[in-house]
Design brief:
With 687 residues, the chain is α+β, with helices and mostly antiparallel strands. 62% of the residues lie in helices and 7% in strands. It has 19 helices and twelve strands. α6 runs parallel beside α17, α7 packs antiparallel against α10 and α17 packs antiparallel against α18. The longest helix is centred in the N-terminal third of the chain and has 57 residues.
Length: 687
């Protein structure tokens, strides 16, 4: 056992007539060296010791800790030496074990130990198999248990929100329901009553309330991704126009303007089509992996599809295929002389390229300046158009709310300011595009010079900025309208609100004025009734959220004035900064084209030139294979991943900041219906 062992004397020892004893045991490896030194000094070297380290960790019988230990065996002579060594071994924390001297006993002890180990091994294997079977059966039912637990938890959480009427002994619940689903809700209550066997049916009443209802929009698998983009910025207010209806088209279109390329757009479209065709498998994969990037790509698969389609469309407009100019319909220009100086003459008078930019510009000396000028003006046109769309939506919101102040004091001056400056700039762009300045033998006017002189020298138009006759008078009139719109925005609404408040306050003072000279008692009653009425209105104002209900409200003219000043300054400066912000459409489109050309010229062009120079097929095929592989990797990783993400973020900013700040409040509450499926998904997200 764990106690000391008796020192046995072997009669048939190694030397005749010599009686030897031995001690064997186990002690920690760290104490082995010190133990051996102490034994050597205690016996003056009259002992023989052998030790071996145990490879596995051994559990200590006293402390139940796993330790590194070593087994030792000591031979000695004399009974007194045995007692001395036993004490030393016990002092070092060694555990001495009984080891018989006779071979038969040792063999019997070994057989007994092996039999016990075999029995324990069978028991352990049986326990492990039983545990695996039990865990497998539990794992098979784990999903059903989790679903049941999530449903029960959500059910009781919802029931805790109900009120119990003690007099009628019924449960009363107040909840929001879409107006279009009232009949479906009543039918569901009737089915639940019949299934449960209840004697009293459930009653559904529509209540009138002054609380602002939550916002609910029906979405499908195509529009859900766009609605999530809007909800990330802010949930639409109840009754407010949902920007997602416009974002479905404008977002992928602006992305396509920045990412316009037939080749790259086709790659994005092919990837999106694969996700759409295999959407069931991809949704299961994203749910299993729970990776944010994969989940966003799968959920936004239809958004990616539209982004790829609009990229192809804009690529056809730009006539770009992997950064190279394509010739789909045949150029309208001839080269004189070929390859030197670029296109000079039209093949036929009045001939126009059917769709997009003529590929003849690709071989011209002013290709870059023409492309920059075209895309810069196009960016301004698209930006002003989208901002005017936002202003138009603000008008619809104001008309729907029947708020005349917002129409005449916000929308009208804002529209006048925007159209007087930036609307006129867009008009000048189209007017400049509509005239053939070469045929008229005139230098095309500079719109930058025109815009500078519009502010710096009203009434004067430089010769290099003249577009049409009478331009001075038109620009002065537009500038005056813009200057009039600023104080209109700044002062009209606060002053009209103050006038309306004073008119209401005057009627209130007349109603509360006592008539003590006529009837003191009546005067006291009037005061008392008025005071009670005011108290009722105050209580209503506290409980209300000002959703179309009339109640007493505190009026602070200074606060309204400061808010209007900030709003007006933000709008005036925002018109300039927002218009300039749309130039990112031109900048990213230019960067996309130039980066594509760099990849082609630096990676693919050298192998193609070596093949054109002639030589063996291997000298052509090997560089072309590796060059094409590198080009595909760079195009996929940098352009179709990194630059696509950059264009996505810029399009997102244009919608959140430049477009939605013209009309969008985004301070609503999202309607979250009671759904068992949502509860299970939320439990998965929490885990």
């Amino acid at each position: 056992d764990g106690g000391g062992m008796a020192a046995l004397r072997g009669g048939d020892a190694t030397a005749a007539g010599l009686r030897l004893g031995y001690v064997c045991g186990v002690l920690p490896t760290a104490r082995l060296a010190a133990f051996e030194r102490v034994l050597f000094r205690a016996t003056r070297g009259n002992m023989f010791m052998r030790s071996a380290t145990i490879d596995q960790l051994v559990r200590d019988p006293k402390t139940e800790e796993l330790q590194h230990k070593a087994v030792f065996l000591i031979f000695f002579s004399g009974q007194q030496s045995f007692a001395r060594m036993a004490k030393i071994a016990d002092a070092f924390g060694a555990h001495r074990y009984n080891y018989p001297a006779k071979y038969s006993k040792r063999a019997a002890l070994l057989s007994q130990a092996l039999t016990r180990l075999d029995e324990l091994s069978h028991v352990i294997d049986h326990v492990v198999a039983r545990k695996e079977a039990l865990l497998s059966s539990l794992a098979a039912r784990h999903g059903a248990w989790r679903t049941h637990l999530a449903r029960q938890k959500g059910l009781y959480n919802a029931l805790n929100l109900w009120n119990y009427d003690l007099t009628r002994k019924v449960l009363i619940a107040e909840a929001w329901c879409p107006a279009s689903m009232i009949e479906e809700t009543q039918e569901a209550l009737r089915r639940a009553t019949s299934r449960s066997g209840a004697h009293v049916p459930s009653i559904l009443n529509v209540l009138e309330t002054d609380e602002a209802p939550p916002t609910y929009f029906r979405v499908n698998k195509v529009t859900s991704a766009f609605q999530e983009i809007i909800d990330t910025y802010g949930v639409p207010r109840y009754g407010e126009i949902n920007p997602a209806a416009f974002t479905v088209i404008t977002f992928p279109f602006l992305f396509g303007v920045m990412f316009g390329d037939v080749g790259h757009g086709s790659m994005v479209t092919a990837f999106a089509l694969y996700l759409c065709v295999n959407e069931t498998k991809m949704l299961a994969l994203s749910a299993r992996l729970r990776d944010d990037i994969i989940t966003m790509a799968v959920r936004g698969r239809y958004m990616l599809l539209l982004m790829g389609i609009f990229s192809i469309y804009c690529g056809v407009l730009y006539n770009d295929v992997f950064g190279l100019m394509a010739d789909f319909f045949g150029t309208s220009w001839t080269e004189t002389p070929p390859r030197h100086g670029g296109p000079r003459e039209l093949k036929a008078h009045g001939m126009v390229y059917p769709f997009g930019i003529d590929p003849g510009w690709h071989r011209s000396a002013n290709e870059l300046s023409f492309g920059n000028s075209y895309k810069m003006k196009l960016s301004i046109v698209l930006g002003v158009a989208q901002m005017l769309l936002g202003l138009g939506i603000s008008l619809v919101n104001a008309l729907a709310a029947r708020n005349a102040l917002d129409v005449w004091c916000d929308f009208v001056p804002q529209a006048i300011f925007m159209l007087s400056i930036f609307g006129y700039l867009v008009f000048c762009i189209f007017y400049k595009w509509s005239i053939d300045w070469v045929a008229e033998e005139r230098v095309a006017p500079s719109l930058i010079t025109l815009l500078i002189s519009f502010f710096m020298s009203p009434g004067e138009v430089p010769a290099e900025a003249r577009l049409y006759a009478g331009q001075e008078r038109v620009q002065v009139l537009l500038l005056l309208l813009a200057f009039v719109a600023v104080p209109w925005m700044l002062l009209a609404k606060p002053l009209l609100l103050r006038r309306r408040h004073l008119a209401r306050a005057g009627y209130k003072n007349v109603a509360c004025r006592p008539t003590a000279r006529d009837d003191p008692a009546a005067a006291r009653g009037l005061l008392r009734s008025t005071r009670d009425h005011d108290t009722d209105e105050d209580s209503v104002s506290v409980a209300s959220s000002n959703n179309g209900k009339a109640y007493a409200e505190e009026f602070d003219f200074s606060e309204i004035m400061v808010h209007q000043v900030i709003h007006s300054i933000e709008y005036v400066l925002g018109c300039v900064s927002n218009t300039a912000s749309y130039l990112r459409l031109w900048a990213l489109s230019l960067a996309h084209k130039q980066l594509s050309m760099v990849f082609w010229e630096m990676v693919m062009l050298p192998p193609l030139q070596s093949c054109r120079a002639g030589g063996s097929s291997w000298r052509c095929a090997v560089p072309l294979f590796f060059g094409f592989a590198v080009w595909v990797v760079l195009t996929t990783a940098i352009i179709c991943c990194m630059e696509m993400l950059s264009a996505f973020l810029h399009a997102l900013r244009l919608h959140w900041v430049e477009f939605q700040n013209k009309f969008y409040k985004g301070d609503g509450k999202k309607f979250v219906p009671f759904s068992f499926q949502t509860m299970v998904e939320n439990m998965d997200d929490e885990e």
